[in-house]
């Protein structure tokens, strides 16, 4: 039991993005501390190597069955903070509301950003994605994934990108942030069971990957890449997982 409690504590400290299981364990996206080595960097990262339901995946759309309930969000604009945790830009919105994902209700915690996008669909990648992390009352995690393609400037990202720290640190959001502004018009999604895509790669995370991308400008993409040129874990094996989808 004690060990389980400790694991949970580590899990959530990782999620906060500010404190880490072991502050002295450096990890990254390239070279000796890159994804291929995560599982060897620390005992607490072992699942990165041994896990069988890891994220991200390349979603095979033809294998998906249409069994999943629609997403129902009830978000409200809220105050928060923008964190550069050394691995991504993360926006913590502790009072942003909740979403019904599958059969359960999940409280929104934070969203963070990856370039290139971590998931793929039928081998097709996107230049950028957001992961919106939610947690149920019993501690389970669910993540909504939103793909970004290059196009018009993304208005929802503007206040984030105007203030995001280029070095590790955090700032308060200048105005309340509306999560709804991040979403595409359709909430149709693919659902798969996976893991955190950062060490310790803890499993039991349910992903709801929206099929419809939103747009961001090439200038916005460049601005993010100037801070994080690459912060996406490579595709992990599907290992026979079932994908469901909603239309
Ligand atoms: Zn992520």
How do the strands and helices of this protein lay out in sequence?
Blueprint: H1 2-16, H2 38-41, H3 47-50, E1 58-59, E2 72-75, E3 81-84, E4 89-92, E5 97-101, E6 104-114, E7 120-121, E8 128-135, E9 141-150, H4 158-163, E10 169-172, E11 189-195, E12 203-210, E13 214-216, H5 218-227, E14 244-245
Parallel strand pairs: 1-7, 9-12, 9-13
Antiparallel strand pairs: 2-5, 3-4, 3-10, 4-6, 5-6, 6-8, 8-9, 11-12, 11-14
Zinc ion is lined by residues 112, 114, 131, 197.
Summarize the structure.
The protein is α+β, with helices and mostly antiparallel strands and 247 residues long. Helix content is 16%, strand content 30%.
Word description of this protein:
A hairpin with a 2-residue loop joins strand 5 (97-101) and strand 6 (104-114). The protein is an alpha+beta fold. 38% of the residues are buried. The protein has helices at residues 2-16, 38-41, 47-50, 158-163, 218-227, and strands spanning 58-59, 72-75, 81-84, 89-92, 97-101, 104-114, 120-121, 128-135, 141-150, 169-172, 189-195, 203-210, 214-216, 244-245. It contains five helices and 14 strands. It has one domain (41-245): Carbonic Anhydrase II (Roll), CATH 3.10.200. Mean pLDDT is 92; it is low at 1-10 and 12-21. Strands 2, 3, 4, 5, 6, 8, 9, 10, 11, 12, 13 and 14 form a twelve-stranded mixed beta sheet that branches. A two-stranded parallel sheet has the order 1-7. It binds zinc ion.
């Amino acid at each position: 039991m004690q060990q389980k409690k400790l694991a949970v504590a580590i899990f959530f400290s990782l999620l906060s993005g500010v404190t880490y299981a072991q502050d002295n364990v450096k990890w990254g996206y390239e070279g000796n501390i890159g994804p291929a080595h995560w599982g060897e960097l620390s005992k607490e990262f072992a699942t990165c190597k041994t896990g069988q339901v890891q994220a991200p995946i390349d979603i095979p759309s033809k294998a998906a069955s249409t069994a999943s309930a629609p997403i129902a969000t009830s978000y409200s604009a809220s105050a928060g903070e923008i964190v550069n945790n050394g691995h991504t830009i993360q926006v913590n919105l502790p009072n942003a509301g909740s979403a019904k994902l599958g059969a359960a209700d999940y409280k929104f915690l934070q969203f963070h950003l990856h370039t290139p996008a971590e998931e793929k669909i039928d081998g097709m990648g996107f230049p950028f994605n957001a992961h919106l992390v939610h947690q149920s009352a019993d501690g389970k995690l669910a993540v909504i994934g939103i793909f970004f393609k290059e196009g018009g400037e993304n208005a929802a990202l503007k206040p984030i990108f105007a203030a995001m720290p280029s070095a590790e640190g955090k700032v308060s959001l200048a105005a309340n942030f509306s999560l709804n502004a991040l979403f595409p018009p359709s909430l149709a999604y693919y659902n798969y069971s996976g893991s955190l895509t950062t060490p310790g790669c803890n499993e039991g995370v349910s992903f709801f990957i929206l099929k419809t991308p939103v747009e961001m400008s090439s200038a916005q993409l460049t601005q993010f890449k100037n801070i994080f040129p690459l912060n996406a874990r490579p595709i992990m094996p599907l290992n026979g997982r079932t994908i469901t989808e909603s239309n």
